[in-house]
């Protein structure tokens, strides 16, 4: 037969004993840092999906061929550069 044993020590603890098992300052700092990293990761994921769904909205609207001088638009040489 299989016997299952339950640990009821946490249920029987008083308020003072529960304070002894609270998180230390280092643990609280680590949890806060991990939480901030998760928020940052979530923002990056949302930004990446927005770029994937509409990639041309993040590009500047200026003419990308402004640096080409001496070539006419629509010519064969212009298309090669």
The assigned structural class equals mainly alpha
Question: What coarse outline follows from CA principal-axis ratios?
Answer: elongated
Largest sheet: none
Number of extended strands:
0
Note the run of SSEs as H and E. Answer: HHH
What is the residue-averaged pLDDT?
74
Low-confidence stretches: none
| Distance between the ends | 81 Å
Beta fraction: under 5%
**Using only CA atoms, what is the Rg?**
31 Å
Helix content: 40-55%
Q: How many helices in DSSP terms?
A: 3
Present the secondary structure layout.
Elements: H1 15-20, H2 25-53, H3 76-80
Membrane topology: Single-pass membrane protein
Keywords: Membrane, Transmembrane, Transmembrane helix
Subcellular location: Membrane
Notable characteristics:
mainly alpha; 49% helix; Cortexin-2; Cortexin; membrane
Describe this structure in words.
The protein has 81 residues and is mainly α. It has three helices and no strands. It has helices at 15-20, 25-53, 76-80. The chain starts with 14 loop residues before the first helix and ends with a helix.
Summarize the model shown:
Keywords: Membrane, Transmembrane, Transmembrane helix. With 81 residues, this protein is mainly α.
């Amino acid at each position: 037969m299989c016997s299952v044993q339950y640990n009821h020590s946490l249920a029987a603890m008083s308020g003072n004993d529960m304070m002894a098992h609270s998180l230390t300052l280092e643990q609280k700092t680590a949890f806060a840092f991990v939480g901030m990293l998760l928020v940052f990761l979530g923002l990056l994921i949302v930004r990446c999906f927005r770029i994937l769904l509409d990639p041309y909205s993040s590009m500047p609207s200026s003419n990308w061929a402004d640096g080409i001088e001496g070539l006419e638009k629509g010519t064969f040489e212009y298309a090669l550069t």
